[in-house]
Every structure is written in C-alpha cells, then in structure tokens.
Amino acid sequence: MSDVVSYQLHGNIGVIAVNSPPVNALSQSVREGILNAVNQAQADASEAVVLRCEGRTFIAGADITEFGKPPKDPWLPEVLSAIENSSKPVIAAIHGTALGGGFEVALACHYRCAVAAAKVGLPEVKLGLLPGAGGTQRVPRIAGVKAALDMITSGNPVAAPKAKDMGLIDEVVSGDDLEAGAISYAQDLLASGAPLKRVRDITIDPETIEPGFFDDARKRLAKRARGQIAQDRIVSCLEAAVKLPMDEGLARERELFQELVTSPESAAMRHIFFAERQAAKIKDLPKDTATRPIKKVAIIGGGTMGGGIAMCFANVGIPVVLVEVNDEALQRGLGIIRKNYSITVQKGKLPEDKMEQLIGLISGTTEYADIADVDLVIEAVFENLDLKKEIFAKLDGVCKQGAILATNTSYQDVDAIAEATSRPQDVVGMHFFSPANVMKLLENVRGEKTADDVLATAMAIGKKIGKVCALSRVCYGFIGNRMLGGYGREAQMLLMDGCTPEQVDSALENFGMAMGPLAMGDLAGLDVGYKARQARTDLPDDPKLYRMGTLLVEMGRHGQKTGSGFYKYDPETRRRMSDPEVEAMIKEEAAKLEIEQREVSEEEILARCFYPLINEGAKILEEGIAQRPSDIDVVYVFGYAFPVAKGGPMFYADQVGLKNVYDKICEFRERYGEEYWQPAPLLEELAKSGKTFAEWDRERGNA
Ligand code: T1G
C-alpha cells in the first residue's frame, strides 16, 4: 500500500486504514492509496471491505491546500467509482467528523456505520464551494431534497444518531473499538445476504417536489448569503438530482464545482479558513509553550460586556464569579445574563434545564476577597484608564500568584495597566466584541512584559470558549479599532461631499458589509464616538471632521437608543428610515462650509471608506502590531462582519491591486489634503514593486 493507506485481511474482511494526520484529508497519496486498496480487494479472499481511519477523525474532506494547483490523478470521482462498482460490499466506519469529500467517500460505499459521537457533513459552502464528488446527488437520494438542501446550504454537521434517522448512515456502532464493530457489522451484512446497496440506484420522484420549491429556495438563500454564489449553484445541483440520471447529475455537479473552485469568492473563503488557524499561532512562541490551567474565572464588571464574557466561560462548563461594586449592580448584571439565556431558550436553541445549569455556574460577589483563588480575571469595566489601573492594583493585592489578570479594554494602554501591578508578566489584553457571547473574535493583546505562557493560555482558552483569536501588540485601538478610525471618518466626510446616509450605507452593504458605518454608529450610539472624540487631543481642528455626528449628538439624536440618529427608526421593528430633516441639515452644513456638493459614485464611497482601513493596516504591519496581513483579515471578518467572500481588507487590497489602492490614496491626498491621506510607506513600497501583502508576508517567512 502506501505510507498513508494500509490494507489488511482480517479473516474474510479486508480493512483499508487511512492514516494521514492531522485530519486524513484526501491528498493525492490518500486517494491513490484508497484506490489501490479497493482494486487489491477485488482480487483477494475478502468477502467485504471496511474503510476506516486512524487518528482523531474519519476523512475530513478534500485537501484544501491542493485547490488552485494543477489536479493530480487519481481524481476523487475515480476513487468513488471504484468503491461504488466494487464486486464486494464496502463499509465506511466513521468516527470524528466525516466532512466534505470524506463524507462523499462514505456515501459511495455500500453501507455506512459510525460511533454515536461521530458527525457527518458537507461544509463546502463555507469555503464558497459545493460538494464536488457526488454529495449533491447522493444525499437527496437518501434523505430527500429538502433535508439535502438544508444540510448542504448550511454546511452544518449532523450527529450520527440523527444521520441514521435520515438514512445517511446505516448503523451506530457501540463500544470503543470501531474497527471491531465495523468488522462485526460487515459479517452481519454478509450473513444476512445484504445486497450491494448503491445510492445511485435510488431515484427521486419529481412529483414529490412542490412547484416553485427550487426558485423559492434560491430567493431565500440569496438574502442570507449576499455576495456568495455557491448557494445558488447547490440548488441547481439538487434540481439535477431530481431531473437527470445519476451520471448526468454528477457531470452537472462537476461543472458547477469547477465554476466555484475558480471563483474569487471561494479563493477568499479558503484564505480565511487558513488565516483563522494561522492567527492562533504566535510566531516567536515555541509550539509546545505550556499553558496555565483555567479552572475558575472572575469577571470584573457585570455590564453588557462583562455579562456576555461570563456566559462564554459558563457555556463551556467553567465556573465564573461576577464582581460588581454593589449588590444592586450585581443583581442587574446577573439579570442581564438570565435574560440573554432566556432569549436563547425562547428561540428553541437551549433547553430550559440546560439554561439553569449554565446559570448555576455563574455566581456573584461585591467582595474582591472572594476571587482570591481564581485562575483568570477579566476586567470589563468602563473605558477609563485610571479606573482600570485602580482595579488592577486591587487585583494584584488579592489574587493568588500565577493568576492571569486580563483587561477587556478596546483602546487603552495595556502596558500602563500592567504597570499598576507588581506582576506585569501576568497581565494581558483580552478584547471581546459586543455582544461577547455571540461575536467570534477575541483580540488578545501582548504587553511588553506579558509572559509567554500567559499569551499561550489566552490563545488556548480563547479557542476553548469558541472564539477566533488574533494577537495584537499595544497601540491605541489595537488592530481592529485603530483601523476603523479612517473608515468611520470618511463615511461622515462623504455626507459633506454630497451623499445621503443611505447612499453611504447602501454602497457598503451592497459590497457585503452586514451594516453600513452610519447605521452602525446609530446602533452603537453616536454619543459613544462623541465622548471618545472629546477625550482625544490629537484630532485635527477641521470643521468638516465628524460634523454631522457631533451635531446630531448635540441635538439629542444619539441613534437607535433615542429613536433617531442619522436615520429615524420604527419603534416596533427598529427598521431604519431616511430622515429628510437630516438630509436638509447635511446640505445646510455643507453650504456653511462652502462645499459644492456633487454626485458620488459607489466606487468612490468604497475607496474612501476601505482604503484608509487598508492604509492603517499597512502601518500596523510595519509597526509589528499585527503578526501577518491575514491576521488583520481575521480581525475584520470575525470582529467587524467584513464579508468572508471578500477575504478581509488586506486580501481584498491584494485583489484590487496595491498600485490601484496607492494611486487612489494619492489622488485623495491631492483633493482632501495629507492630514488624512498619507500613504503608508509599506503600501508605497509594495505598490511600486508590484507586490502583494501576501507575497511580502511570505518573503518575511511568516506564512
Ligand atoms: N484540508 C487541508 N488541511 C486541513 C483540512 C482540509 N480539508 N481540514 C483541516 N485541515 C488542517 C488545518 O488547516 C489545521 O492545520 C489542522 O488540519 C487541524 O485543523 C470534494 C471539495 C476537521 C472539524 O471543509 O472543519 O471536501 O493549522 O485546527 O479544530 O466535495 O479542520 O494544524 O497546520 O481545524 O480539530 C471540506 C475543514 C473540504 C473541513 C477539525 N472539508 N476542516 O477541526 O482542527 S472541501 C472541510 C474542519 C471538499 C469535496 C470538497 C476542521 C475539522 P494546522 P483544525 P479542529
């Protein structure tokens, strides 16, 4: 066989074992090994064949690193045909997560068994793809078109017991020796004279499909995943499964898969897949850096953020102590948590008894002495540096040696906070995004003195609580918020140039942003930015700067919380509505500033908002604040809802072309002054050398 696939006879059962860590992905050598083993089994004494995997999981999909490179024989469909046309039953033995091409291999087998903890799924859509090896043709034949549509367009895995109910697997194997269980199952099949059950022999009765089913699905899916085309192509594949014979359906699937795998959307989404995993790795930290055990956590501050953070830990079974200044505030904080969980229960996403169990993990106190034994403290109080320093000094006096002291600050100087303690090596930033129990991003901030094991622990515990972690050094706003400055500034400057709030926000929402910057400001509260600006001393004295945001706050229009900001809001639905009063005000203020308003194109709106973001990202890379351009992409996709189908701001800049970005910034500098438009030296260097951020990163050995 090969070093990644072995084949052995166990009595009259041939066993193919794949062993290609970390996830038994279908690399060329795995495909070749399986094909050779299946062919060998046709000629030997075996009466049935079991296909299983070593390690943590059954095959978890095609090898994504091979996409974008010239395909190598044998192609996966060829391997699946050999399995399906075997003269002897082939039984897939599944553990871990049989995903994508891995589950498609199992579907080409005649029978599928699995341990109860296993999951099966077709997550290709999350990479901008569709199952390209028969998944869209076999799943509807087994489980029906509607179940197939839900499973393939969501990309979510299905647990083995449910998969058995759906017919996707035939047997749940008990005990902890899957190979023995699968061999026994194969013997039972032989003993019962079970036929060579091929999924392709099942046909779907078109009469069972309601009229308009596929068109309705297309409309519904188009709303859910703006800017992504995979969902539409999946619907087309399912239509083919109903209307065409198997081989023609497979041909249609292969054709649409090829379209997707060469699409910019899929390239962007595959980039984010690897970027997310890369971001968790700290370049100069040895991979085996020990982490500190986190058995109990304290959260200082029971506001929206503190409550959300507490839920993150309770959700994975870690007891949490919520600390507030008095009992009234504490009860309010605990009430926020109960309310959040109740909403999840009402949505049917959390059983009532489970909610009580989670809430039971969260206790409260107003006494710091009660948190002397915790392993990790996360401070989540108001964004005031002096208050934070005071709290850290108290924590220093109370917490046990070795406790990690983290701050959730979104802007403040983590080094200054660390200096308020006698243990700066134990201080780290852990910046959650609101709502903390929902948003995936965790921006960990490395202080000058933060110890290696503290950093490693922040990354590990972040992954444990289900976050996507990225590392930042200390600067004002770290990675995400620092870059956001120019984005929000230009959104308001564009109003002075002639845009309505709706024009600005729609341009960015058509690009794929979940919400435009002005609507986002209304959601967060315009007074938040207003207060932050009041505290800053570095802003230019420019009457255009944040003019509308300031005026609206001073009029009491703080955004959704006051019913109006840049927009008016329906009190019931909170739907935004353009406000002629604001649009008149904009014109009036522009006239006062003697600005001649003009039509502004969507293209200019995008460039004016995104290029400052990209330019700041280049500075952040030069200063070593972020480890890699792809880390910045991870921050924006998981923390700021930058569309994953665009790959993040730095990936997007590489697609636009850094020379185009640079030239546009120079044009804006001519038009609006170098106060705001000064190209980052790294951007200028790469634009002039014709390089991308990704190439620059690889040359630095950071990929
Ligand atoms: N190809 C290549 N590398 C992969 C991989 C894959 N499919 N899946 C994981 N890795 C690497 C990953 O980069 C990381 O590398 C290591 O394995 C551990 O991953 C034809 C076309 C299986 C649930 O989309 O969802 O099949 O950082 O950190 O948290 O129709 O990996 O260690 O160097 O995520 O335990 C479809 C993707 C592919 C599944 C395990 N399959 N993988 O999670 O570990 S397209 C997928 C996952 C396809 C067919 C189509 C998860 C996991 P490194 P990890 P984990």
Q: Order of strands across the biggest sheet?
A: 12-11-10-13-14-15-16-17
As a percent range, the share of strand residues is: 5-15%
CATH H-level superfamily of the largest domain: 2-enoyl-CoA Hydratase, Chain A, domain 1
Summed up, the domain count is: 3
CATH architectural group of the largest domain: Alpha-Beta Complex
Count of individual helical segments: 29
CATH class of the largest domain: Alpha Beta
Runs in which pLDDT lies below 50 for 5 or more consecutive residues are none
Task: Give a verbal description of the structure.
The protein is an alpha/beta fold. The chain folds into 3 domains: 5-261, Alpha-Beta Complex (2-enoyl-CoA Hydratase, Chain A, domain 1), CATH 3.90.226.10; 297-476, NAD(P)-binding Rossmann-like Domain (Rossmann fold), CATH 3.40.50; 480-624 and 627-703, N-(1-d-carboxylethyl)-l-norvaline Dehydrogenase, domain 2, CATH 1.10.1040. It is built from 29 helices and 19 strands. Helix 2 packs parallel to helix 3, helix 8 (213-224) runs antiparallel to helix 9 and helix 12 crosses helix 13 (327-346). The two termini are 33 Å apart. (2S,3S)-3-hydroxy-2-methylbutanoyl-COA is lined by residues 22-23, 25, 57, 60-65, 76, 97, 99-101, 104, 123-124, 127, 129, 131-133, 135, 274, 277.
